[in-house]
Amino acid sequence: MEQAVEEFIGLKRLAVVGVSRNGRKFGNTIHKELKARGYDVFGVNRSMERFGGEKCYPNVTSLKGKVDGVVACVSPDQVEPVMREAAAIGVRHVWLQQGAESLSSVDLGKQLGLSVVKGKCILMYAGPVKSFHKVHRFFVKMAGKL
């Protein structure tokens, strides 16, 4: 497993940017699953005050001192401000969930000195790995990619 992935899953206080009122959004699933796996998880959505009965934060900046990593589950055009906010509050670990990354966001991560994981689903790595994510992880180990 690559170092950036190992470091990220070793963090315990994570922001999930992209939780939504729409129950079908993957940010919601990630938030729920990470919480069930023992992580302290904070939802981020500028349009919501509460998520799952808990306070929802308007941006990453409002989580200064509360999180060690950020999982971005938003469209690529929304990722760069998230990365800038993470860097501004001293968070150095960002996970760009599949579909969130772009070439410019990866370059920005390097410029900001961030450890960026891209192109991978966090649920395949944050233990305990369950269900079909366990099967996906097996194939990644065997073939190097899905």
Quick overview:
The protein is α/β, with parallel strands linked by helices and 146 residues long.
Order of strands, widest sheet: 2-1-5-6-7
CATH H level: which superfamily? NAD(P)-binding Rossmann-like Domain
What is the helix tally? 5
Largest sheet: 5 strands, parallel
Beta-strand content bin:
15-25%
Overall average pLDDT: 89
* Total beta strands: 7
Helix content: 25-40%
* Structural domains: how many: 1
Following the backbone from N to C, one meets helices and strands in this order, namely HEHEEEEHEHEH
Can you tell me the overall shape? globular
Main structural class: alpha/beta
**Which blocks of ≥5 consecutive residues have pLDDT under 50?**
132-140
- Please tell me how large the radius of gyration is: 14 Å
CATH class: Alpha Beta
CATH fold node name: Rossmann fold
CATH architecture: 3-Layer(aba) Sandwich
Distance between the termini: 14 Å
Structure description:
Residues 132-140 have low confidence and may be disordered. The chain has one domain: NAD(P)-binding Rossmann-like Domain (Rossmann fold, 3-Layer(aba) Sandwich). Helices cover 37% and strands 20% of the residues. The protein has 146 residues and is an alpha/beta fold.
